[in-house]
Design a protein that fits this description.
The structure holds two protein chains of two kinds.
Chain A: H1 3-10, E1 16-17, H2 20-37, H3 62-65, H4 68-86, H5 93-111, H6 121-136, H7 138-143, E2 154-155, H8 157-181, H9 189-198, H10 204-211, H11 213-229, H12 240-258, H13 263-273, H14 275-285, H15 289-301
Antiparallel strand pairs in A: 1-2
Helix pairs in contact in A: 2-4, 2-6, 2-13, 4-5, 5-6, 6-8, 8-11, 8-13, 10-11, 11-12, 12-13, 13-14
Chain B: H1 14-34, E1 53-60, H2 108-116, E2 124-133, E3 139-149
Classes of the chains: A mainly alpha, B alpha+beta.
């Protein structure tokens, strides 16, 4: 681990650091939220309603959940609020509007699907984390306007909860596989059957997996191990790079063989979990070190930065 | 970077700490208890351990292919197991009924009855391929049935 990462990892959850990484992760999450919202639709409203699959779906009536106008409105509100938030206009209010619009839009999408779309989960969690950041540090962010990159306005829990969200998302996927299939889940047979059913036979990997159960078992058990080990990234920073690369490789393999796109999750893993992104941004901050002290003093002297007791 | 020093004064305001603790707890506990409850999720994609499935093909008496969904033999969802928590069943929308489920190998008679009920008087031919392990290395067709549906 480099000195840069080491120092930022050692900084406490409630210790504020400069916000460049937090802002880059915010912009990435906003871009991903807007991106995945372009892939939504309500196509199955004439099918019988099943069970509520979202928090909002447990309270809102079916007529609201299937309302096309509200669905489109929530998409446009999401895009507008995300743009405002990215530019730090009307914050923290726009942060919560973005989170609310995204959650409503994705919930309506899920409530009208005869399956699930898990790539909508991580952006929701990360939007909440960043909205909470802008809520808790609203005074500091306002005070630092004009010299934001030099001010210490990003608490350690923002990157930590980002990593935590990624870790629990993948870790729980591993737990669910163990829960339903036991250790034998990774025996390679089911992977071969899924490949046989809807794998892309033009891909060499698909052909190799279909031809050899030992390879299928190695890949399937490896994916299970990778997902279960994802919890380690919460406490052990050294595991983040190898596990992030493993998860990215797993997603690319799934996309090329099964044609199931998870590129949005790949982007989030690269920015939130892969430590190289953060290290690069921390190096980028170095030239501002001399300004940092002045900016930090300015924030503190306004009386807004140190009012947390 | 050595300039990451703690900001003067504690930032551990009670609401902030509470928010962090609640977030960490909810994102793990809610999925474990409830399963899918967006934005909480226990991603169950590909979590079932499949040992076999059936592949169906259907033709009418002119030899034209008939869509599997017309006779309830379509594959509704190849990788997401249905919800089963808190009395919930299935998904946000219920898929049309089908015999095409993982690890379910209906008898020829069950297939005939199921298709006949949806054939609207047509004479149909159904081919059912059971796909599973053919040996200890490969998967493939382990059984092939041809079923005629409807009166001649």
């Amino acid at each position: 681990m480099s000195e840069a990462t080491g120092s930022s990892d050692r900084a406490g959850l409630f210790t504020a650091t400069r916000p460049l990484f937090g802002l880059v992760s915010l912009w990435t999450v906003l871009a991903v939220a807007v991106w995945v919202s372009t892939e939504t639709h309500i196509d199955h409203v004439d099918w019988e309603k099943g069970s509520p699959v979202s928090v909002l779906g447990s309270f809102l009536p079916e007529s609201v959940l299937a309302n096309e106008w509200l669905f489109e409105a929530s998409r446009w509100v999401l895009w507008g609020a995300a743009a405002c938030w990215a530019l730090r206009l009307l914050v923290p209010f726009m942060g919560w509007v973005t989170f609310g619009a995204y959650t409503l839009h994705a919930s309506m999408f899920w409530e009208n699907l005869p399956w699930f779309r898990h790539k909508f989960v991580l952006p929701a969690l990360l939007l909440f984390v960043h909205a909470m950041w802008f809520q808790c540090y609203r005074r500091e962010l306002r005070a630092a306007r004009g010299d934001l990159l030099a001010a210490r306005v990003c608490p350690g829990w923002v990157p930590f909860l980002g990593i935590y969200s990624v870790a629990t998302f993948y870790g729980l996927a591993g737990v669910m596989k163990l829960w339903r299939g036991g250790l034998a889940w990774g025996d390679g047979l089911s992977l071969q059957l899924w490949m046989y059913r809807f794998g892309d036979e033009d891909w060499l990997l698909t052909q190799w997996i279909l031809a050899d159960r030992r390879l299928a078992m190695a890949l399937q058990a490896g994916a299970l191990l990778l997902e279960c080990l994802a919890f380690l990234v919460i406490l052990f920073p050294r595991t983040r790079a190898p596990l992030a690369l493993g998860l990215i490789g797993m997603h690319l393999g799934i996309e090329f063989t099964f044609g199931i796109p998870f590129a949005s999750n790949v982007v989030l893993v690269m920015v939130v979990l892969l430590p190289w992104t953060r290290r690069a941004l921390e190096r980028f901050e170095w030239p501002a070190r001399s300004r940092s002290a002045a900016g930090h003093r300015a924030v503190v002297e306004t009386g807004h930065a140190s009012d947390r007791g | 970077m050595s300039d990451r020093v703690p900001t003067p004064g504690s930032r551990g305001r009670r609401a902030e700490r509470l928010g962090v603790i609640l977030f960490c707890s909810a994102t793990v506990l809610v999925p474990l208890v409830a399963g899918e409850w967006f934005p909480f999720s226990a991603p169950t994609m590909f979590s079932e351990r499949t040992a076999s499935y059936c592949h169906y093909r259907v033709w009418d008496e002119d030899g034209d292919r008939v869509r599997r969904s017309e006779v309830g033999l379509q594959c509704n969802n190849p990788h997401d197991p249905p919800l089963t928590t808190f009395g919930r069943r299935g998904y946000g929308r219920l898929s049309p009924e089908t015999l095409n489920l993982y690890d379910v190998e209906p008898t020829v008679e069950e297939i005939r009855e199921h298709v006949e009920a949806r054939a609207e008087g047509r004479r149909l031919v159904v081919q059912r391929l059971v796909i599973g392990a053919v040996d200890d290395r490969r998967v493939g067709v382990v059984r092939d049935d041809t079923i005629e549906v409807g009166q001649p």
